[in-house]
Amino acid sequence: MSIIGWILLGLLAGIIAKFLMPGRDPGGIIVTALIGIAGGLLGGWLGKVIFGVDSIDGFFELSTWIAAIVGALILLGLYRVVAGRKT
Q1: Residue 23 — left, alpha, or beta (φ > 0 → left; ψ -120 to 50 → alpha)?
Q2: Tens digit of each residue's pLDDT (9 = 90 or more) over 25-74
Q3: pLDDT recorded at residue 12
Q4: What is the reported pLDDT for 48?
Q5: How far is CA 27 from CA 14, 30, 52, 76, in A?
Q6: Got the DSSP string for the chain?
Q7: 86 falls in which pLDDT band (50, 70, 90)?
Q8: Fewer Cβ within 10 Å of end Cβ, the chain: N or C?
Q9: What pTM, to 2 d.p., does this model score?
């Protein structure tokens, strides 16, 4: 997948994660994209470690989207815990 594909996938996965886990978050579209991109990487790594599958196959693969969204949800939860302590 190209860099543009990763950025687009990350942005959309981050938006979906924020939709699934509503609440107030510090940060805008850039933070959402970064959480989504890192979440995609985390989700792909967890899928490979836990299930032994290559979950980052391509942009239009369902497993790629599920891995990215689950990873983004994990990172969004961690981000809220860390950012919530400062305020």
Answers
A1: left
A2: 667 777 777 888 888 788 778 877 887 766 556 777 787 788 888 888 88
A3: 87
A4: 78
A5: 12, 7, 34, 11
A6: --HHHHHHHHHHHHHHHHHHS-S--S--HHHHHHHHHHHHHHHHHHIIIII-------TT-HHHHHHHHHHHHHHHHHHHHHHHHH-
A7: low
A8: C
A9: 0.79
Q: How many CB atoms lie within 10 A of CB 61?
A: 14
Number of domains in the chain: 1
Extract the tokens encoding 16. 């979906």
The two structure tokens encoding residue 75: 């990172």
Give the integer Cα–Cα distance in Å for 42 and 23: 22
